[in-house]
Amino acid sequence: MWTTEGVHPYDEVTWERRDVVMTNWRDGSINFEQRGVEYPDFWSVNAANIVTTKYFRGAVGTPEREWSLKQLIDRVVKTYRAAGEQHGYFAAPADAEIFEHELTWMLLHQVFSFNSPVWFNVGTQSPQQVSACFILSVDDSMDSILDWYKEEGLIFKGGSGSGVNLSRIRSSKELLSSGGTASGPVSFMRGADASAGTIKSGGATRRAAKMVILDVDHPDVEEFIETKAREEHKIRALRDAGFDMDLGGSDIVSVQYQNANNSVRTNAEFMAAYEAGARFNLRGRQNGEAIASVDAKELFRKLAKAAWECADPGIQYDDVINDWHTCPETGRITASNPCSEYMHLDNSSCNLASLNLMKFLASDGTFAIDRFVKSVELVITAMDISICFADFPTEKIGETTRKYRQLGIGYANLGALLMASGLAYDSVGGRSLAAAITSLMTGTAYRRSAELSGVVGPYEGYGRNARAHTRVMRKHAAASTAVVPTGDVDTEILAAATTQWQKCLEIGEGVGWRNSQASVLAPTGTIGLMMDCDTTGVEPDLALVKFKKLVGGGSMQIVNQTVPRALRTLGYQEEQVEAIVEFIAEHGHVVDAPGLKTEHYPVFDCAMGERSIAPMGHVRMMAAIQPFISGAISKTVNMPESATVEDVERIYYEGWKLGLKALAIYRDNCKVGQPLSAAKSKKEEAKAETKPEPEKVIEYRPVRKRLPKKRPSETVSFSVGGAEGYLTASSYPDDGLGEVFLKMSKQGSTLAGVMDAFSVAISIGLQYGVPLETYVSKFTNMRFEPAGMTDDPDIRMAASVMDYIFRRLALDFLPYDDRAELGIFTAKERAAQIKAEAEAEAGVDLTELASSAPKEASAPARAAESVPAPRAAGSSTELLEAVQGKAADAPLCFTCGTKMRPAGSCYVCEGCGSTSGCS
């Protein structure tokens, strides 16, 4: 399909040598350097940098170090071919060669990618681990609980993540055989959380991720729901009381459960009780008898309130999950991986791969159905072959995976595909096209799985689950025929999908299926960057402007290339396209763009920015594609800061009504210590507009205003990331800061001397008339170690000591209006704002609230001019912050320090490719 007979894929492209030098964009220091690496000329700088740093094996500077993309692809593909030949997948050597060349071509041209563990391990001396997603199990015994700790630690050591359901552990309201009271699962979570916190930094490839789940009928479910929200409250209360709550502080051990995603597993009985306003029984783990009852609506409200406060717990819908389960005779699905896309048997794993959808969109807007079908066939075949030679972290996981052969084919770039097709993400047409593509992918995957079963046999557990597996295949096929197309493209794709499902059933009912699971929608973080995707997984575009690295170093702000393609699809002329793109480059959004019709605005709606997609828009997209996914979807529903508890409750309820398997939300700034979003001040904008011409600038000579011999001062002790210090600030008698002294205790003479010199420099600047606001704007958000939690109740988190000091000075010496412009507030002011917003929004319909977009830009019109991207941003997220003048709730990369961007329910760093979960 992709290759030419007699021509090797490598001979079809132009290769070039590059120097991969990864630098810290803030200070220019070199993080990684490998010169003379070989890539095709069409690979972006970012993709080459990430593949070189993440996936090339061998010590840098040694002959064993890989230096060409050819070596990397050959290492993986030739291993797959050899295993396929060994295990009888090919009828003749010529077939094996075609398989090898097709796979090579697709990887070379970024048509798809395996998940990261394949690139890390396959073809090396390391264990051949190919899976990124794991599910463990825990029984109600101390041996099992300790095994859980050990197994989780082994998975974390390799940089992967795992999920577990703790509902088999008896509750704290039940007795032990000795007559004592059980500890309960929430208590045992504390030990696992401490283990994850210790091991997470030891992974060679990425930070560990974990998921903890508890069933809604477990007697400890209320304690579980409030666990993380209560810890957030505890941090505030203990700091206010003077306890040492700094990272590494003597009292920090009281803050637990911060290293896992939590989810509550609801069932049909509970949801029926919620709808009826009835009571719901909580059942003991030993005999299943009811030992307590709760008001279902009240419990659901507690779940929504906790998620509103700190984004945890998420929700999983057990009845939907197990209704689509292909292997119920073996056991129920009780848990998921950390990102919630893999859901299958306990003690199992899933091997992922993702297709780049933009590679199948033709210039005329049609979708290359035949190429897509053949590509899915090839990738599924390769993924199944990998299980034949794969290694696993535990024998239990290896045994289950070999018996049930779970695969997770998926895709990336859906958001870009929809925009390029001129379809809004939150539209009937967008959802119809997404559903059609997803159905075609999964139908083809299962059809090929049936064909593989006819050649090398069905999965070992198929016999006892044949009826259930066939029933689920029919459910998928029926859902596909129920999709109503809205255009020619999705009509053709749906027709092809129907054909694939018919063949799937025809073949599979005769010979069975090779795989108990075929598809999931993963975050596609690192591999999305490897394939130069504009969007990850099922997500929409992050924003219309992005941050692009350039050959030879440096970077620039560009408008996503999907935008002009979408404009041409919508019928705009080149002159109009140029004008609209220029407007977007300047403003970061399309509102009031010259010549752009208002009815086309929704096509360019993004996850963040001036016109962001409504929360229900995300939920509806997930609902459209869920019936065509074997597993589930890694995605977080973004909600505005003004959203209420009732809004969260409705989202969780609608997710169940719409047939989702799992759902998680994130409300802007819900985490304690997150920066409060604040638009840039109109005053600054006015100053920028009235800036005099260079030739008219008058240079004034400043005059120093010295402090009197006796002046008022105050001293604040502080702790930032384990570093303790003292801040003494002296004022003029007529008010106004005039002097600063900084003392860092236990930090060494060098740092103490630097802080003394810095204090003198700041003090002299203040006395010469430099406004405190200027210092605050320059030094806040500066990031370096030590950083983290502080012991100041008004400043919960600090990006550095400098960040903390100038936030503290702003709170002590600047009036409220000036601080508001800088986005710096006391804890009481933040609480008052949230309370006022919640009261103002009470009773507002969620759909109406989420679909309404502000009429004015949330950033000044000249934000892009006033904060040039190369000097103010190190990633697309930071660029977006500069454009819209608002802080984004995204973590800093633990490897290189730049701000990460969302990828499904995880985050990915554009600088180095690190992720916070599956990839």
Automatic annotation (TrEMBL):
UniProt source species: Virgisporangium aliadipatigenens
Protein name: Vitamin B12-dependent ribonucleotide reductase
Cofactor: adenosylcob(III)alamin
Top-rank taxon: Bacteria
Reactions catalysed according to its record: a 2'-deoxyribonucleoside 5'-diphosphate + [thioredoxin]-disulfide + H2O = a ribonucleoside 5'-diphosphate + [thioredoxin]-dithiol
Documented EC number(s): 1.17.4.1
InterPro entries in the record: RdRp_reductase_class-2, RNR_2_N, RNR_lg_C, RNR_NrdJ/NrdZ, TSCPD_dom
Any single biological process term in GO: DNA biosynthetic process
Residue ranges of domain Ribonucleotide reductase class II vitamin B12-dependent N-terminal in the record: 20-110
Domain called TSCPD: residue spans: 708-811
Domain Ribonucleotide reductase large subunit C-terminal per the UniProt entry, residue ranges: 131-666
Record's function text: Catalyzes the reduction of ribonucleotides to deoxyribonucleotides. May function to provide a pool of deoxyribonucleotide precursors for DNA repair during oxygen limitation and/or for immediate growth after restoration of oxygen.
Transmembrane segments: none
GO-annotated molecular function: cobalamin binding; cobalt ion binding; nucleotide binding; ribonucleoside-diphosphate reductase activity, thioredoxin disulfide as acceptor
